[in-house]
Fold each of these.
Amino acid sequence: MSDDFNMSMRKFLKQVGVTSQQAIEEGLRRKGAAAGQEFKAKVVLTVEGLDVEHTVTGTIKGQN
């Protein structure tokens, strides 16, 4: 794969990671989530033109 492809992929994934973490942290603050409280999470990635749909699920624990 080309350097341009790799850079654009890394930039996109970094943006996804950083903005997702910020959104989750804000949600935990608004909720006042207690330490150890668990929340189910799901991310669905779609890529138009490539017929790609990828789902990731997991659990996020609150903290104080």
Amino acid sequence: MKVGLLIAGLFFAGLTTTATADEAAANNITEAGVVKIEWQAPEKYRDVRSATENRAVYRQRVFEALTKSLDKNASKLLKSGEKLELVVTDLDLAGDVLPTFGAATVNEIRVVKQIYPPRISFSYRVLEGEQVIMVGSENLRDMGFMDHTSMNDSDSLRYEKAMLEAWLRKTVVPKA
């Protein structure tokens, strides 16, 4: 009897864990302040992989962090009443996840080198109330990403955040 209850409990715990991961994967829209991002078909993105974390959970954490960072900058740069909406179709984080081949860990590691630049493809629009005041699409790639961000920064998404901030300052702010 106890074995049956134990098995049923483990089965239910597995379903609960799966449901949580599935819910995170299904939520492909992130919002923070003046920024709203729809992440289209994230399972097909070039590289949003963690070396050690569940893929869906890591992806959602990355999406939320990039949204909050973009909002932090957009809130300062956009005029009052303006909102920024993006539809992301591809994301490739700086670096590449490589196997360790029996090194001290069984996990993979993300190796960041100049040959693995961050990339992101998206369409965007800037709204003032309900009125669209700017639209466009971008295929950003920062080939010099290691040259203009602080190497002392411990933020694992510093290159992607810097690339999006530079785009916002260069493209959106002058035209909005």
Amino acid sequence: MTALHRDPGPGVAPGAEHEYAACADLWSRALAHRDGTPPDPLVRERVLRKLGQEPHLLLVLRPDQDGDPLGFSLSFPPAGPEPSRTAHLAYLALDPGGQGRGWGRRLLAATLERLSGTADAVVLEVLPDNTAARALYESSGWRAVGEGRFADSGRPNVVYRRDLDRR
């Protein structure tokens, strides 16, 4: 009897500076797909500026070691003096063709795992009508804790928080 080989799918690994442009393009495509609009070069530039901020954690979902990113997360570890131990998840994106395969959940879990040693909690903001993202976060243990506005666009958002396991 032959054992069935199950493809584990794409892997998550730390991203590198040479992937910044691909990640910014991916975010721009994902937003255009979500909103039914053409990609906006200003959105791409905002992502590139964020990627230039240090320190950050960039994780990339790749089909293989050399493949172009299928997804990425960009988060910022806690900054400032104690007791602020809250990280910020700024971006979580998947190529529109990769949605619905569990890859976003895999990328989110890897991000939380990597932040667990440096933060007690993570916050993020999401558009109120982004039901797919909100469903992913809520089913992954995140809870809505407030409302606000995105600093870069002024659009309203829902703020989510996820407490992390202490190590």
